[in-house]
Amino acid sequence: MEQLRGLGELRAWREAAWRSGAAVGFVPTMGALHEGHRSLVEAARRDGGRVVVSVFVNPLQFDDAHDFARYPRDLRGDLELAGAAGADAVFTPSVEDLYPLGDPAVTVDPGPFATGLEGSHRPGHFRGVATVVAKLFALVAPARAYFGEKDYEQLLLVRRLVADLSFSLEVVACPTVREPDGLARSSRNARLDPSARAAAPVLYRALEAGRVAFGTAGSAEAEAAMRAVLGAEALAEVDYAVCRDPETLGPLEHGAPSARLLVAARFRGVRLIDNLGARRAAGEADTPR
User: Fold this and answer.
1) What is the percent of the chain with per-residue pLDDT over 90, rounded to a whole number?
2) Residue 281 domain-assigned?
3) What is the pLDDT of residues 119-138, one digit of tens each?
4) How far is CA 98 from the centre of its chain?
5) Could you list the residue range(s) of the whole structural domain that residue 99 is in?
């Protein structure tokens, strides 16, 4: 496996892949790789061609400088995991590589995502995500890019970015990877102290309760069930617990057969998000709000 330390090395690697006729599968990450990232690399490996992973902690998507500074970094571990999972190369650009003139004057407008669930709680976050993803897609020119469903709103943003900006690539969604107690794998989990780590699986329990309620009653009941579970955990400072349209994350239409349940909460200062799909049981109607 190769480490590509700058734009010149990436371009040479990409051109060699093209000359060989191999399609490129791309896994963009911010490092601190874990089993969730491993599953993305393995999915890309199964699809064939060459596989490249990027490791770049993007300053544009942090609204808090302290959060950016505290974000976990372990490049040696990242290289080992990526290689073991089947990556052919890991692209490790510097901030200067991607933003040579400093903070970019031209960025990618995330549209309605700017004021959506995460956008409303993290100003500027999705503009930073959209900008760096567009830059990486232009640099890597992959045939396929792999994203986890754990960051569901981000996944929808990337799909819309690819469609609206006419990138010629397939966005492949991969299932959330979880710990045995249900906690979604996340680089931020490493920052949880023991009491916060013990409390954090309440997110998944809330989602499961919401999924049951949606299947047998409706969206209002699903949101109430999630809030009840979260409210019983003293360490959970809840930002939202909502039931939304799975394609747009807008309000759910009456009688919709499926939904996406999404939650976000802080545990002793560490903010975690999670989500789960839900379907209505046959013959069940949504309870009017």
Assistant:
1) 94
2) no
3) 999 999 999 999 999 999 99
4) 20
5) 2-174
pLDDT of residue 16: 97
pLDDT tens by residue, 267-282: 999 999 999 999 998 7
Residue 285 confidence (pLDDT): 54
Domain contains 164: yes
Give the residue-averaged pLDDT of 28-51.
Answer: 97
Q: How many domains does the chain have?
A: 2
Closest CA to 258 of 215, 229, 196: 215
Q: Which amino acid is at 283?
A: G
- What secondary structure, in 3-state letters, does the chain show? CEEECCHHHHHHHHHHHHHHCCCEEEEEECCCCCHHHHHHHHHHHHCCCEEEEEECCCHHHCCCHHHHHHCCCCHHHHHHHHHHHCCCEEECCCHHHHCCCCCCCCCCCCHHHHHCHHHHHCCCHHHHHHHHHHHHHHHHCCCEEEEEHHHHHHHHHHHHHHHHCCCCCEEEEECCCECCCCCECCHHHHHCCHHHHHHCCHHHHHHHHHHHHHHHCCHHHHHHHHHHHHHCCCCEEEEEEEEECCCCCCCCCCCCCEEEEEEEEEECCEEEEEEEEEECCCCCCCCCC
Is residue 221 included in any domain, yes or no? yes
134 and 155 inside one domain:
yes
Other beta carbons within 10 angstroms of residue 224's beta carbon come to: 16
Boundary (domain end) residue, out of 174, 198, 213: 174
Distance of alpha carbon 36 from alpha carbon 34, whole angstroms? 5
Catalytic residue annotation? 37
pTM exceeds 0.90, yes or no: yes
Backbone angles phi, psi at 239, to 5 degrees: -90, -45
At residue 259, what is the residue type? A
Give me 235's structure tokens. Answer: 């360490």
CA dihedral for 113, 116, 120, 122, sign (positive or negative) = negative
